[in-house]
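Section 3.1: Structural characterization of target chains.
Under the original work plan, the team committed to producing a structural model for every single-chain target entering the pipeline before any wet-lab resources were allocated. The record below documents one such target. The sequence was received from the expression subgroup and is listed exactly as submitted; it comprises 145 residues.
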Amino acid sequence: MESRRPERATFLVVWKTREGVLQLVTAPLMGGFTLHGVTRKSVLDLARTRLNGRVSGSDSVEVVEKKFSMDELGAAVEEGRLVEAFVAGTAYFIRLVSHIHYRGKDLGVPTSKACEDLYASTVRSWLRDIMNWEESHEWSIVVQE
């Protein structure tokens, strides 16, 4: 089986905690494995300010930067708590993760048509709208000639 992953991209998961709290989780900036870039910062900033029940009537999402393990991710899959997984990289590249193979097992990453790419596509569209001036935002600055 071929392994395809972007080098030094930010890996993000949306899951429910065992207490039922919906979270967007990514690793903190340490160890050199997470891409420290504008897209990562933009995704997290937008998620913190906008993922508050405004996505298809969903629950508010708590944004968490913490270390988490593949075993924790596997447990979330087995317990039906994983909602979505995606990666973010350079130039507003945001891609849904559809397959994770870990320790000889395929983890069932949700990709049903009903909820496919809900959070990843929402954040991607917010970034696209800001970049294309379709939305007025503090990040969009007109530079006078």
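The CA atoms of residues 129 and 135 lie 5 Å apart.
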